[in-house]
Write a structure and sequence with these properties.
The protein has six helices and twelve strands. The strands form two sheets. It has a six-stranded mixed sheet with strand order 3-4-2-1-12-11.
Length: about 250
């Protein structure tokens, strides 16, 4: 039974204001995932000691890593990653469109990796949307369109996940569920899935969306002392299996 996790790690700075990459590794290792989608990673940034957080977390989990820099300033990078212990290949990475009427919004991006699960290709897209509603709507429309979910290569089992900064009542959510189903509603049993803020989570802004070939078994947000402290988000975990037909 494969397991996938999406986790906004807040540049590995916890609610105790302590920078601790190893703590993020411990959180993820305890969950025993096969695929991990991470948001808000620093790579070579002065503020976090010039560490390549994506590489260090992947190394700690003994996983391959693909990183997409949403923001690059000289040699400093900030963005998102997909990690996995399964056979994989990078399909695409790039920026998501911004909202031209508001300048200096933080750049946002998405990352697409094909992962082989039990011999079948699974398309995994990790996204991190902005904070401004109109900006989010533009980015969600881009994800739902020909550049990503309607891309010719995006066929068969597909999972879109990440930090969407939007709840289930938003235009963003309604846009994406026209293409994929919300995993939380397909889970066999209902468990808490609010992820933000981690000390007392009340908002569901991290989501997993799946195609019909992905059978959702369970979705949950682990609420433990370490997850409440390690980042301002809880991880969101999904157990699943692939069902036929797996392509086309």
């Amino acid at each position: 039974m494969p397991r996938i996790v999406t986790y906004n790690v807040h540049r590995c700075v916890g609610n105790d204001r302590r920078l601790d990459v190893a703590r993020i590794v411990d959180v993820l290792a305890s969950l025993e995932p096969d695929i991990v989608a991470l948001q808000e990673l620093d790579v070579g940034r002065r503020r976090t000691g010039h560490v390549d957080q994506a590489h260090e977390i992947a190394q700690g989990l003994d996983m391959a890593c693909h990183f997409n820099a949403a923001l690059t300033v000289e040699e400093e990078r900030y963005g998102d990653a997909i990690l996995t212990c399964l056979p994989e290949k990078l399909v695409k990475k790039g920026a998501l469109p911004g909202y031209d009427r508001i300048r200096r919004l933080e750049p946002r991006g998405a990352l697409w990796v094909e992962v082989e699960v039990d011999g079948a290709p699974l398309q995994v897209i990790n996204a991190h949307l902005g904070l401004v509603p109109r900006e989010q709507q533009i980015q969600a429309a881009c994800l739902a369109g020909p550049a990503w979910l309607q891309h010719p290569a995006c066929t068969g089992p597909t999972i879109l996940l990440g930090d969407f900064n939007a709840t289930a009542t938003s235009v963003v959510y309604r846009t994406l569920v026209q293409r994929l189903a919300p995993a939380r509603r397909l889970a066999g049993r209902q468990t808490p899935t609010a992820t933000f803020p981690s000390p007392l989570p009340v908002l569901r802004i991290d989501h997993v969306f799946v195609s019909p070939q992905v059978r959702v078994l369970e979705v949950f947000a682990p609420f433990a002392p370490i997850t409440r402290q390690a980042s301002d988000h809880l991880p969101l975990v999904m157990d699943f299996e692939l069902t036929g037909p797996l392509s086309g």
